[in-house]
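The methods section describes the discrete structure representation at length, but only in general terms. Each protein is reduced to its one-letter sequence and a matching series of backbone shape codes. I believe one specimen quoted in the main text would settle the matter. An entry of this sort, consisting of the sequence and the corresponding backbone structure tokens, reads as follows.
***
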Amino acid sequence: MLKRYRGYATTLISLYINGDRPIPDVLNMLRSEWSVASNIKDKTIEVPRLRLPLDYFPPEPGQGLIAVVAPEDSPVAKRLSEASDPLAMAMAMAEREFVRTLRAGCGVPVGGVSEALKGDLMTFIAGSASPEGASMAVIRVRGERSRPEDLGRRAAEELKRFL
């Protein structure tokens, strides 16, 4: 669709979404258009990036985490424990417990992400969409960073009420 439009100045593209159109369909259309725009070789065209708010589009749990396995008494395990980030570990544990409690796998349309708050507090944002994308539920739960599994479990139980 973008291929037929070519300009030598800044071009504004407005997007109007019909209220009957499911959000996943709109996102798929935007991804397709983004792909076309990314393949255009003209360097004068800039494509804006979208930052989707977590309260509407929580990502799949566990994104951006790196796990390394080593024997407990090895020098590698000692070095890794020194480099480990306690906050990232708490967030990973909350997200893992969320997935475990839901018994969700890669084929289940759920998102869940934890965020640090001040002090010992964390929040967990979780969401799920119906398979056809007609409805979506997003919840937010707060808990203690020192008890991340409880936070993940409570988020899963709260989201289950909407599934």
Q: What stands out?
A: The mean pLDDT is 80. The first strand starts at residue 110 and ends at 116. The chain has two domains: 2-39, 75-160.
